[in-house]
Amino acid sequence: MKIRLYHAFMVLFAFVAISCSKESIQIADKPVAENNVDIESELLRVVNNYRETKGATALEFSAVAYTYANEHTDYMISKGNLSHDNFSARASSISSQENAQYVAENVAKDYETAIEAFENWLESSDHRKTIEGEFTHTAVSVKKDLQGKLYYTQLFFR
């Protein structure tokens, strides 16, 4: 009986020792770039001014959407290209947290100013529809990669 208890204790000790050693392994964090709040603010203002000229209401800023926009901008920077990867997960999270019925996003890269990104979006019928759409809230994330290229994510929802 003592031998069984001893063996059980040793197995448990070995399991704990192995588990603890795995916990000490660090996983590299995805880098987080700094926001360019001036361009973000300007782009939000430009989009809202444009919407008002089209008879649409101005969009309200959403802190929840801003969190997801920032995460996606960091993701695109880490990948080095534009994408809508994982959009369904972002949309689902925003929907559940904000009771949103519909979520959309526009992304851009390599434009030095808010106006350039905005004008590029207007040239695309899908992006323009999103900007002009029946949304109530938005958030814009603009960040620079290590080479100085700007990445943009704008989320919209209603």
What does this structure look like?
The protein has 158 residues and is α+β, with helices and mostly antiparallel strands. Helix content is 54%, strand content 16%. It has six helices and four strands, in the order ααβααβααββ. Strands 1-3-4-2 form a four-stranded mixed β-sheet, with helices on both faces. Helix 2 packs across helix 5. The longest helix is centred in the first third of the chain and has 22 residues, at 2-23. It is globular and about 40 Å long. Residues 2-28 have low confidence and may be disordered.
What's the number of extended β-strand segments? 4
Query: Which term fits the overall shape?
Result: globular
Mean pLDDT across every amino acid position: 86
Given as residue ranges, the uncertain stretches (5+ residues, pLDDT < 50) are 2-28
- Put simply, the count of helices is 6
The biggest sheet, with number of strands, parallel, antiparallel or mixed sense and barrel status, is: 4 strands, mixed
Helix content: 40-55%
- Gyration radius (Cα, Å) is 23 Å
Reading side by side through the largest sheet, how are the strands ordered?
A: 1-3-4-2
Outline of the structure:
The chain is of the alpha+beta class and 158 residues long.
Q: What is this structure's SSE topology?
A:
Layout lengths: L1 H22 L13 H17 L6 E2 L1 H17 L7 H12 L4 E7 L4 H10 L1 H8 L4 E8 L5 E8 L1
Helix pairs in contact: 2-5
